[in-house]
Write a structure and sequence with these properties.
mainly beta, 4-stranded antiparallel β-sheet, about 10% helix, signal
Length: about 120
């Protein structure tokens, strides 16, 4: 009987789509490189405790970075960083796929302490 209950529970969990939800850095910030290129995009992120920091190249100050921090304690709203450049909140990602998912709400905790993205528009200017 115990095996039957476990089997039914497993089928129910799979059937209801139980999955993790991760918190993701916004792909880009609001700082425009150019009309043709678009906005500056994420280079890397860090995660410590319940806070993620997303790092983007600065357009206004070439050779430097803009940091946008989001915290679970603020409901993943912007906790630190320039509000005219940073998005007001981090995003949710149900797939929890690397590399742009610093925090897993199901754990809850960091998926890693650091993640390098370095995609299009993510390099120092």
């Amino acid at each position: 009987m115990v095996r039957f209950v476990l089997a039914v529970s497993l089928l129910f969990a799979l059937g209801t789509g139980v999955s993790a939800e991760c918190v993701a850095c916004p792909n880009c910030d609001y700082e425009r490189i150019s009309i043709e290129q678009g906005d500056a995009c994420i280079n890397f992120w860090t995660c410590s405790g319940d806070t993620i920091t997303c790092t983007y190249p600065s357009v206004a100050n070439p050779g430097t970075w803009n940091n946008c921090s989001y915290s679970a304690s603020t409901g993943w709203a912007l906790a630190d960083g320039p509000s005219e450049i940073c998005f007001s909140g981090a995003g949710a990602n149900a797939k929890c796929e690397a590399p742009n998912n610093p925090y897993n709400n199901a754990i809850p905790g960091c998926t890693a302490s650091y993640g390098l993205i370095n995609g299009t528009n993510g390099q120092l200017l």
